[in-house]
Design a protein that fits this description.
By secondary structure, this protein is mainly alpha-helical. The chain has 11 helices and no strands. The termini are far apart.
Amino acid sequence: MTWSEMQPLLEQACTETLVMVGWSTLIAVVAGLPIGVLLVLTDKGGLLQNTVVNKVIGQIVNVGRSMPFIILMVALMSFTRWVTGTTIGSEAAIVPLAIGGIPFFARLVETAVREVDHGLVEAVQSMGGNTWTIVRKVLVPEALPSLIASTTTTVIALIGYSAMAGTVGGGGLGDLAVRYGYQRFETGLMWITVAVLAVVISLIQFAGDYAARSLHRRGGRSGPGPKLRLLKAKEQAAADVRKVA
């Protein structure tokens, strides 16, 4: 197969992969972020401590993460057909990709939010801030660099899932590699597909790392973080003065 024959196939496959990964990542982030935050809030010592809710959500997330993606795709075929009207193609693959990405991202969010300094939460509480204010003004902004790194990890994982989806008719680069590279013995095309995937993943990792490092250099804050730290320092200084007096 010549390059002129490979090029349109590669362009279509890349477009399908980008569409699948883009939409599934968006859904995973939108749904996984509140789930991850809720796991922290309802945990022991959290602002909304509720052991039952935390255990139920945690178990659902664990089941979603533990299920191999190929099995998840098969298990969701009826649901996928109900949502998209088909089980073949890149649009159909978005459904299992998104559902598989939600628990994966939720756990990463939970880890990122747990790293936030609890003293900032206490400072907002001392100013009368409610739970929503703490989440919006402290937890998410303070965890933003880690959340970006988590999103990068999720995107890369979904690219791998999308390649697996291609092996069962999901479209994209995985489908191209199997149908042409393996079944039609076009070894050159298969290795080009592998190279394209490697380049795409490297670029995404570089962009995610750069964004996370940029936020860290700026303090990792998008707004109130420095003010909260200053307030905390002032409160501590005032307390020390009262003790001396």
